[in-house]
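Fill in residues.
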C-alpha cells in the first residue's frame, strides 16, 4: 500500500518513535524529544526529518498543534488482510467520533477482528473501572461504531463531553452503565435515554501492540 522505499532509515526510526509515543504513551513528542530519541545534539536535524515526513504525507499537525499519524508504518504491510483503523482521542459532544481532529493515528488491524461491512475505531482505555471485564489501563479497545446496544454489552458512551466505557443495562425504564471493577469507588451511572452511544467494544488489544 505504502512503499517504505520513499523513507530513509532515520525517517522510519523517527516514525516508530512517534508512533510509540502517540499510540502507547498518549502524547505528541516535541522536536527536542525527537532529537534526543534519534541521538542528535541539535534539534534542527530532527526538525528537518519531521518536516520531510509531513511533506511526504506520513504526518500532519492538527489544529491543536499535536502530531497525527496519517499512514501505518511500512512494516505493517507484511501482515495479511488488515484494515487501517483510526485511534481516536476524546470525541467532543456533537462532533463525529471519526472527525479528523479526533484521530491520533491509524493502526492496522486484522479483518478477522475488524470485520468488513462495519466501521471501527480504537480508543485507549483509561483507569480501572473495567478491570474485572479484562480491560486494563492503557489497553486499546476495538469499537464497532453504532448508536445502539444490547443489555450486557460493553459500550463507549459520551457523557458530559467525555467518552466512558461501561456495561449497558436497562432496568425499569432507566439506563444503568455499570463498572466492572475491583476498585469499589467506581459506582454505576444512572441515565435517561438522552445520552449518546458511540459504539460497542468488540475486542481488547494490549496497549503495546
Amino acid at each position: 500500500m505504502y512503499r517504505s522505499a520513499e523513507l530513509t532509515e532515520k525517517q522510519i526510526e523517527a516514525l516508530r518513535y512517534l508512533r510509540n509515543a502517540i499510540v502507547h504513551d498518549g502524547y505528541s513528542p516535541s522536536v527536542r524529544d525527537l532529537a534526543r530519541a534519534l541521538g542528535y545534539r541539535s534539534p534542527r536535524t530532527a526538525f528537518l526529518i519531521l518536516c520531510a515526513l509531513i511533506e511526504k504525507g506520513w504526518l500532519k499537525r492538527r489544529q491543536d498543534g499535536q502530531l497525527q499519524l496519517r499512514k501505518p508504518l511500512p512494516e505493517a504491510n507484511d501482515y495479511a488482510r488488515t484494515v487501517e483503523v483510526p485511534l481516536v482521542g476524546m470525541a467532543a459532544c456533537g462532533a463525529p467520533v471519526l472527525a479528523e481532529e479526533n484521530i491520533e493515528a491509524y493502526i492496522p488491524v486484522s479483518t478477522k477482528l475488524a470485520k468488513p461491512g462495519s466501521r471501527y475505531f480504537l480508543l485507549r482505555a483509561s483507569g480501572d473501572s473495567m478491570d474485572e471485564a479484562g480491560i486494563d489501563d492503557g489497553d486499546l479497545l476495538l469499537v464497532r461504531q453504532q448508536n445502539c446496544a444490547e443489555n450486557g454489552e460493553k459500550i463507549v458512551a459520551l457523557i458530559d463531553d467525555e467518552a466512558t466505557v461501561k456495561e449497558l443495562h436497562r432496568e425499569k425504564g432507566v439506563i444503568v452503565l455499570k463498572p466492572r471493577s475491583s476498585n469499589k469507588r467506581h459506582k454505576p451511572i444512572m441515565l435517561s435515554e438522552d445520552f449518546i452511544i458511540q459504539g460497542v467494544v468488540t475486542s481488547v488489544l494490549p496497549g503495546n501492540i
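The first strand starts at residue 59 and ends at 61.
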